[in-house]
Batch of 4 targets.
Target 1
Amino acid sequence: MKKATRYLISIVILLAMLVSFIGCTTEEEPTQSKGSIPSGEELLQPMERLRVATTTSLYDTGLWGYLEPIFEERYGTELDVLYAGTGIALEYGRRGDVDVITVHSKSREEQFIAEGYGVERIPFAYNYFLIVGPESDPAGIKEMTPEDAFKKLADTGTGSFISRGDDSGTHGKEKAIWKGAGYDYEAIRQAEEWYIEAGRGMGPTLLMASEKQAYTLCDMGTFLAYKGKIDLVPIVDKGSILLNVYSAIACNPEKNPKVKYEMANNLVNFLTSPEIQKLIGNYGTKQYGVPLFIPCAGAEPQS
Amino acid sequence: MTELWQGLIKAIQLIVTFDPEVMEIAGRSLAIAATSCSIASLMCLPLGSLIHFSRFAGKRLLINLLQTLYSVPTVAIGLFVFVLFSRAGPIGGLGLVFTPIAIVIGQALLVTPIILGLTISALSGVDKAVTETAISLGASRFQAIILTIKEVRYAILTAVIMGFGRAISEVGISLMVGGNIKGFTRTITTAISLETSKGDIELSIALGIILILLAMIINFALNRLQQR
């Protein structure tokens, strides 16, 4: 028993040394990783934290990772960014589990506000959707309008299409294009193997499309951010239906008294402030050559 | 094969340089699993003894139920805990969803059937003669119970080790209830899930290797304790 106790004690001491070592290093560099190993206090008492559920395309482009530290330092609050699809983000908002949502599905956002769960819809950036696909373009839909392209995909069945299939904003846009092309979405879902429902975020769906050399609908930002990792090219990029507007909505404290409404408003104001709008407009230019988003400070952009 | 090899090299790199983000999520995985396992063990040892040493109607049924709960899917528990603690849910007032505490609660629920069931199994393995001899030699009922528990302390420790293993390696609860928030509720398992879906296979493999190493070290330590 004595030998085993000694072993155990030495391992505990090693772990304790490790913990304190990391504690020291993370304190010296507060900007690098703000979370250290949770102390007992952290585990027991949730600190001042603002939760934002974001659409996956805003996250996969790295925009939130870029803005998060700026916001946290300015307002002295921890920002928790939850990777969700528009569908689940709206659900979190209804439940009051998050304080702000940043999504891109105008009709559902307006419904969210009409139902009283959100206060106001504030657009803060936009870009465009694209239909991307393999360079070989097996279905021959290059340069068509989005509706015609979808029509050809459905009629000929050549070339696979990967749908987000997760009730996200992008998925909503895809459904809108199918409707515009004159198809019943449920009929498309029952279609043969060419229509694939991924059930994943934008970045992961792109990777799947690249793997399968299939078409998919993607926002410009995520496509540019993932360009080095995927083997796909833009196939259809013109069409008024492809406008993609990101909005921030603070959750209504009347429905959920526990939401941090004041700080939520701070975040919305932050996103539409001139300084941050400029940063958003420049985001990605250095890395990808073109900006990933176009700022639109609270006003609805015309396509 | 090159991917695995690259992953191994990356793992060594991350460990040797004490990469702060990896250390943070590793520490978090450990802390959360250890906490949930401790809570569950502290509850299950007295509860298990109580169940084993008592006689009541439906005892057999209860034990069977516990054994079926060994393989409850983690996403199911995650969903259950989420709905329970969501602000819109019955225990929503605490605002525990998307915090590490919620993960601890979920994991405690996950490992309780395992530790409880295996404790009861262990106790049933003790020959009744032991308790009877102790009593005939003058031990009180309480002392006889303690003696029985001591007889199987290593089997009970095995139960705890199994519980810990299940807790540290689960993803479903951590993802659904924790939200994989960077710097707050991201664990090794949720990080692997995220990095894989982002296409960073090398990092995922590295994290996987680190997780396995961590589990092995803990098991090794606990095994040495077990072997006297």
Target 2
Amino acid sequence: MKRPLGTIAGARSGDKGGDANIGVWVRTEAQYAWLAETLTADRLKELLPEAGAVTRYELANLKALNFVLHGLLGEGVASGTRFDPQAKALGEWLRSREVEIPEELL
Amino acid sequence: MIRIGNASGFYGDRLSAVREQLEGGHLDVLTGDYLAELTMLILGRDRVKNAELGYAKTFLRQMEDCLALALDRGVKVVTNAGGLNPESLARKLKNLAPDTMVGYVTGDDLKDRFPEALTANAYLGAWEIADCLTQGAQVVVTGRVTDASLVVGPAAAHFGWGRGDWDRLAGATVAGHVLECGTQATGGNYSFFTEIDATHPGFPIAEVREDGSSLITKHDGTGGAVTVDTVTAQLLYEIGAPQYLGPDVTTHFDTVRLQETPRGVEISGTRGSPPPDTLKVCLNTLGGFRNGTTFVLTGLDVEQKAELVREQLHRRIGEQDLTWTLARTDRPDAATEEQASALLHVVVKTADPKRAKAFSRAAVELALGSYPGFHVTAPPSDGTPFGVYRAAYVHRGEVSPKAVIL
């Protein structure tokens, strides 16, 4: 069954100049193994179609993935015309997207 | 162990936080971060108006209220509230308490090197802060230093760390990164906020040890929570690659270990390595003037309504420099007027302040001659200047940080 990613994952997003980042983490090793396999950079772009180039970093020690969304914010917060110019709520948008989550991870 | 608190995560954060942190329990050092990329631009515009300004004015107000309390309790205060003018802020603090040793850190300003910029500041590190404290400063204000330096500097001074103590510096950098955004470490802006009491989170505290490991905690009786999850959320905030580059050390975020304890979260295992040869520079230039408005498009024919107003505005002022975004927040056959409405945002960014102002007039003049149901969420202003941020890198030899004691 499809459920929001945020059923098991937390996220926090923000800006660095014209790039945005989204850190996504989960709470158990089993959830992390699933997250690392499922939430590839390509999958993230499917879930957040506004994203352009995406780089993914793994932080297994924190059961977390970090995504950098290059150029999403144009020339930075002061000049951006994008909705949510500092990318504060990108992470909550991602958490609301629905994905197949194995029952045993819920 | 040195107990370092934070009372500010941005210019505009909770004004009472300094008092809360000083009265809530024991601290050795109280820090505060006031500078973001955007803040440097705001302070740059202050400084244009008045050469005495360019620092975070709210911090001065906090010190007018609480400096005596901090001194009385033996708490040292270390902040980057100096912004573009740490010397001016330091002198005002010295006036508040003439017997106090006030230190300031300068040398970050690279406007001579980047004359086209409104502000140009290198991200300095922790060592000048440590230098001020070692000389006996009770208050230290800096300009643009990395946020984590506000924690690394006091820890390095307290323990007598050396510049090559990579793992210790990296450990303290992690503690500093957790503290730098205030209550974002203690349950503020937290995905699982429904699981805690997030109504009034307390500000965070790091107990840093000689080996660079730390315990993240907060004063007893304050709101929010310090858990592996709240700390993880903040560790992931505004980072890129796990090799986190700073002016004093490269911190390897993929080596950090977190462990929950009854008093908070233990941070250990952090590895560091030498920093790059270059320092990052925060550049803000004036990009021009911006203005904008949001048309509300309700009910039927949303796309055609958008097209009509777009065409009308283009005919009046031309389409160059305009950015349009149609947000289809509407749904068919809606039970409320708001749910029946889409939002059409338009922004003009131009080098010409007259054009930014002309935009308002053109948009307002449509009010009785456009699509049915015409209204806007807020009328356009006269337009405001906007900045463009960019990062540059300079060799560290080109920057001369300086610690000064008043």
Target 3
Amino acid sequence: MIKNNILVSFFSSLVTVSLSFLVFSYIHLDEDEQNDAGKPHSARSLATDRLTENTINSMKDSIDDILISQQQLLEKNQVLQQKIAQLELMDNYPSSQTQSEKNYTTQFNVSSHINMTQEEFDGANENNRSEHFERVKEEFLLEQYDSAWASEMDSSLADVTQRLKALDLGDISITNKDCRSSSCLVEFSHQDNIDQSVLSATLAAAGTSEIVLKHINDEGNDKTIVIYRR
Amino acid sequence: MTAINNIISTKSILIITLLFSTPSFAEDWAISATGSCAPVLGNTITSGGGLKASGGTAVVRCPLTREVGSNTINNVYARMKRNSASGADPFCNIISTSHYGTPSNLGYGFATDTTANQSVSISLPTQYSSGYADVSCVLNSGDTLYGIRYRQDN
């Protein structure tokens, strides 16, 4: 977070400096033109006029360059802000674990950096995963329907089903599907003894880039709810 | 002169700005499939410097054993070759292993080129956190995974 804040401050400072300089340059340009306006034209040589014109053109080019780089900086700043927002969303999660922390957790069965027992640690993780899923689901529910994409996803999901059969992971079927503008919520019903790690790794569908999923037991039936995101 | 000075200052600031805005990478490394990956489902054979799925679909897991950052991670690529006869696109997932338990958020990329070796860019999941990561690939019969390349911003 500190590194990000420093980066954001740095980029903000650069943007501020660029803006200040831009304003300063325009003011000076204006002043020069005003000073020259009072003199008779004959007092200025043709060469000076050309030099001034070239100088002004160069300045305009430079200002254009600055505007472009300023735009790039603003875009970078926006990307950083998005990353910070993502990090803030994950603030509830245990922060980064170093190798020593990982070893410590394994050796003593205690999460050292947040001073929890392993059970509490796992419980917190489960809650965080569940919260993340619910957040993504809420976003999904706010989306509009997209029949064209739903149709494309039908084909992609048929490939997923075929893949699951080829891997012989047991009886798996899609029991519900709802596609909106950029996400699809799909319910897979399967046996309770399925290897969930392997199942998760095999669910990718063409035309999407990410899945958020949750395993549930619905009145004795094991299901995996998957939200596919474009 | 004031205008010329302004131009010089402008260009200096421009150069400094561009210099600092140029992306650089703190880490850029790769692991080989034959040395770091293993099948968790199905069968693979070593072929041409990679792991090739044989006799059906296989799921191959490659743990990234170096620590990676959540806010700085930039790109993860899988170097692979698709066997055009398999009829389906192989793909690779990435998941952060900082969250213990069942994976709940995975990003992935598909290999669509059927003619040559290719680097598949794996999308990063939004719930990615600092720590360790796993890449797992689903290969159809004849598809080959050569390795994983990881690149991280400063």
Target 4
Amino acid sequence: MRDFLLYYGMFAIYYVFVINSLYLFIMMFSFKSIMGILKSSLYSRYQALSGSPHVPPISILVPAYNEELTIIENVRSLLSLNYPEYEVIVINDGSGDETLNVLINEFNLQLSHHAAVRPVLNTGKVRSVYYNPAYPHLYLIDKDNGGKADSLNAGINLSHYPLIASIDADSLLEKDALIRIARVYMENPEETVAIGGDIRIANGCKIEDGIVSEIRLPNKLLPMLQSIEYLKAFLGGRIGWSAINGLIIVSGAFGVFRKDYVIKVGGYRGGYPGEDMNIIIKLHKYMLENKLPYRVAFCPDAVCWTQAPDTWKILGSQRRRWGRGNLKNMIEYGRYMVFRPKYKIFGLVTLPYNILFETLNPYFRITGLLALIGYVLMDMTQANILLIYGALNILYGFLLGIGALLLEEIAFRRYPRFQDIVKMLFYTILMFFGYRQIGVIWRFLGHIEYMRNNNSWGTMTRTSWKAEEKKTISSLEVRG
Amino acid sequence: MNSLVPAFHQFLQASRSEHNSCGIILAACKQLSPTSVSYIEEALQQKSTGLHMQISYDKNTRLLAVYLEGQNRSETHFFSLQVKDVLQERGLLAGSLLIASFSESKQATSYVLQRMIQEVMELAGYGEIKLFFHRLDGREETAGSILLVNHDETVNEFLQIFLQQKGYHVTIAQDGMDGVQKYQELFPDLVITDLNLPIMDGYQLMERIKQQQTGPASKIVVLTDKKLEEDVKKSFALGASDYITKPFSPVELAARVKRLIS
């Protein structure tokens, strides 16, 4: 027993060591490609591009469920993007509140009887389509509640352009975010199937007329921690993963896709959270199985500001949802693709990494810690192992945090004040005392939820967006 | 918008029926409380026997305006000495005074008042009384008023200075809604607008302008990033006189503007 505990404890230490080393390795790719990204965006003339007839038109899909407080501001902001040709399709997913009516009143929308909805993807029943010629680029779909994925599919059915952008209704795009992403697409329009944008936390920022006018770090604890977390994930992680074409997720809050391939892989999967990761896995699978050259790119300078949950309860439900979605995707696709040479980098690196270090992370962490504690309790002289474990964890995490901050400071400098940098550093450390551990537990709870649902109601459990309580944040708070 | 302008309109409406001339005195003051404003009003009322006048004070610009009914320039000038006395007595004067008088031939418009407000704020010195000449000859005559609707602050600042040097009176609006409001206040000779604007886009702005046109038409120039023929077509359909794409040459823009309002 004692030996087992010791070896398991050692294993946990190695596990932490390997996961962090790998992460560091991925981050090195981020550093390698950031300079290239920076230069190419520096030399790009976005202003000229944003009026150019050579830029591909994009359909922006905005699924909205109970968004009556913020939807007007968001749609107005989307209608004034710097982009030559695009349309905004808002999909009201059977909201229980006044989302539909505030939109109809604000934009004087009329029922449109001859809107061409092509049923290329199956969706919940579309009740009606609204349109006003005075806003020629705005469409509103009203449909029965069916979840976010279902809404996106309905949007695809109506969309007129070859590219689609999915955007959360509680997120704000920077004015040139779309043109920046389009430039990445235009570098290689044949092979680029999906491009992700950078998501940042808007809490604390000043927002006027749907435009982030003053960038500030959040004042509250939770949004601030998430701010750092997002910086690490997007700058440290996703740039690196995209450099080796192993990106497994394009955030649902802001991503651009080639419509033809999204349709070929059957559109978004409903019924489960994690549809954003699901669509990317399916795209990888389709392209690799058909031996088509492709890339899933990431564009760190296309920024989308989103509202972070600021209570433990809402954050917890979001993280449990993520855990559930991740597990579902791994069970549904991951295990059939992992370690198959056919799936190249994606099957040999991304998926093993994701399964071992993301999906199974809570089990290793929790049992490892228990083993160590058990061992120390049995034999007090070995308390230093526990300390090593803790110190290793923090040291590595801090290193990764610094790396992400460094990337931010080299490339973007969104938070120019010195005090902001100090604040970010402080929270990078603070993260390891409680927040990370709770995150692991949430993920674990998400897995439990998944198992429960599976046992009691079979595989197809409908989850409406009701779980996404963060949508209740009012526009007033946004300004606060 | 300066609060003096609506007060002035109110005054004009109340008095226009009987008289056809009026005097305006603008004085740069210190921060005034409502009580000191009413004190000034009382003091002036005592000095002006039987004269209809109105006082208003704008907190942001710290300007005190005195509107006088039926006064020509010399009468206004005389009264301005009393205004100066009252203000100096209490130590409320911060700069100089600017006076003007409008008769029937020279219409008092909010545009002229705006010019006066600008000028009095630029005046140096203390306690001096300057006459405002709203001549309708020379440079003032050829130059027109331009409303610039654009969201890019750098371009706005540059174009405002550039066009002002050419003698135009330039007003800036940051978004479409602001543009419509300022258009209704000023009725400028020419509107330069972007198509891509927050809250209300350039097309809607042009439509509103079209609806509201009663007198002589304001010319519209579209200045935008958009190079799509669809946008060009639609702009001209909505009544634009010219379509200029960015990056643009300011010299060319000025030349085109000059052609449209001369």
